[in-house]
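ok trying again, last paste got cut off:
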Amino acid sequence: MTSGSKGADQRAGHGDPLGSRLPFRPAEETSRDGFVLISVLIVALLFVAVTGSLAVRARLFVLQERNRAETVALQTLADGAARLVALDLATGRFSLPPDGTTGTCKKGDLELRVSAIDQEMLLDLNGAPPEMIVDVLTAIGIDETDARRLAAQIVDYRDPDDRSQPLYGAEAAEYARAGLPWRPKNTFFADVSEFAQLPAATPPLIARIAPILTINNPRASIDPTLINRLSATPSAANEALSRWLSPSRQTRFAVMIELRAPGRATASRTATIAVGGENGLPQFLKWARNDMAGPPEAAGQTLAVSDASLCSAVGHSRLDQSRTR
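nice, full thing came through this time. structure:
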């Protein structure tokens, strides 16, 4: 080939020795390949995100189920402790004074708190006459006017008629004027919590009075032990309550149990029991979760050796060795 023809070939575009071997790729095909690559990356990212989300949800589900199982086991222990305390009260083996004094027991990272309250140390919403209600409330420091108003409204709530007590009573009309959506039941209190429905029962008064109320003291009398502990002047309280005072027969008790696993779960149980039956076993009158505060605690005490069965039950539960992972 002459130099002239070679130059002509180069000018004609045939001088690149690779040109004949590289395939020709139109611009639109290259663009399509880039789009496919981006789509694949997006799908991969979505797959990673979805699987990661499912893994997190599965992890949370496992933790929730583990916590639920631990809570159930903890509640079972609390229920068992309540039954053991009830049996100890029925057989005279309970070591703490039954005036709300709290005993504690620790096993591992579990803490068991136990207390009992003799119901004849409390003011009965159904059985106490209005004069007794006034005397008991003023003995623990409630203003006399508030005490008289509450006494009248307690009577109106439980009596069957629609006539208000003089001066401070409250029947349906008074509830309506107070803007309350409910009315007095005109029958016995079914639970201490109903005390909060009285028009005169303000939150501060409820906090102070509810812990000394019961519906399980059938006598129109009261054992002075708890009132003396709550009164600033026990001797004056005893004098004011002299006509209502009578030692407890120790036949009915409220048992309060709280079992804590710090940072993990808490279980509680309140039981009201009657003792002294023919078979010597406690009769359960109420079985509920802790719904209202008990009497203000006396100085905490460690559960005595006679209550070792409670600590032993906690210690052998294996809950104190479990951990939420």
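cool. The longest strand covers residues 252-261. Confidence is low (pLDDT under 50) at residues 315-325.
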